[in-house]
Design brief:
Blueprint: H1 2-13, E1 18-24, E2 30-37, E3 40-47, H2 57-67, E4 76-79, E5 86-89, E6 94-95, H3 104-115, H4 127-139, H5 147-156, H6 160-164, E7 169-171, E8 180-182, E9 187-189, E10 196-198, H7 201-206, H8 212-223, H9 228-254, H10 257-261, H11 265-283
Antiparallel strand pairs: 1-2, 2-3, 3-5, 4-5, 6-8, 7-10, 8-9
Length: 284
């Protein structure tokens, strides 16, 4: 793997002076390495197994080019739309997920800059259509969704029309704390694999990926005093994300990735269902 990365970076940057500094840990979908090329740092992303099932690289590339005009992310130098390999400028700092105190005001500022940019992503995120596709992918592997999932999903479906009628803007689509990099002064957001036009509150719900309370605090910073409807949308989108990532977790379990990555994706999937149930109870 490392030889492939070195050869690719040499080819892209047209230099032989390339070395790998470290692999960045924490991601479950991609392998990301920090490389040194002619005295300058870059990050090289090598997509994990089966990542192409869930990401459209043509749309990702187009969306990145648009977002780069806002000055809130690092510059991508190369993105192969066939295999998803990407070379980008290195961002100094630490992912928010490694910190104990988040700069919520800066996070809200970045998200507002995206949401209020008037940019239009290459396509709508289409959450409900996407979820059906994810369900179909695992069904084709022989997975049978448990009754608990189907019952919770049916309850959630009552809110589909309400959510689909929300105003759509350019959204990051995976704005969890690990995708924000902070050096103590400047905050940047990276990884636009799941970007698309959607309800802006979807991004705030993504920030609750580690802990619900963190996303809810961001909601209160973003809106100052969120309305009942905004709180409802936050809880519903977070619930939706649990259904979405339940299917991704089960895909990885069915593909044997629990063993290869040493992560119990079956257990991860169950935890998503627990959270979805909690959120539906909160909504009702």
């Amino acid at each position: 793997m490392e030889k492939t990365i070195l050869d690719d970076v040499k080819r892209i940057l047209k230099t032989e002076n390339v070395s790998i500094i470290e692999r960045l840990m924490g991601g479950m979908s991609n392998y990301t390495y920090v490389v040194n090329a002619a005295g300058k740092k870059f990050t090289y992303r090598l997509p994990g197994e089966y990542a192409d099932f869930f990401v459209d690289r043509v749309q990702e590339k187009e969306n990145i080019r648009m977002i780069e005009t806002l000055g809130i992310t690092n510059r991508t130098l190369y993105l192969n739309i066939k295999d998803g390999c990407k070379l980008a400028e290195y961002v100094e700092g630490k992912p928010l997920s490694t910190l104990t105190d988040y700069p919520y005001e800066k996070v809200a500022e970045i998200l507002k800059k995206i949401h209020n940019s008037n940019l239009k992503a290459a396509s709508d995120y289409e959450p409900f259509h996407r979820l059906k596709n994810y369900e179909l992918i695992v069904k084709e592997l022989g997975f049978i969704h448990p009754f608990r999932y189907l019952k919770l999903r049916a309850s959630f479906n009552h809110h589909q029309k309400f959510l689909e009628n929300q105003h759509k803007v350019f959204t990051h689509g995976d704005s969890q704390p690990s995708n924000f990099v902070y050096d103590g002064e400047r905050l940047l957001v990276v990884d636009f694999e799941f970007s698309g036009n959607n309800d802006p509150i979807y991004d705030i719900a993504c920030f609750a990926n580690i802990r619900y309370e963190e996303g809810f605090k961001l909601l209160n910073v973003y809106y100052d005093e969120p309305s009942k409807e905004e709180i409802l949308r936050f809880n519903l989108w977070r619930c939706f994300q649990c259904f979405q990532w339940f299917n991704v977790a089960m895909f990885k379990e069915m593909k044997g990735m629990s063993k290869s990555l040493k992560i119990n994706f079956g257990k991860v999937a169950e935890q998503y269902l627990d959270l979805a149930e909690m959120l539906l109870n909160k909504v009702s």
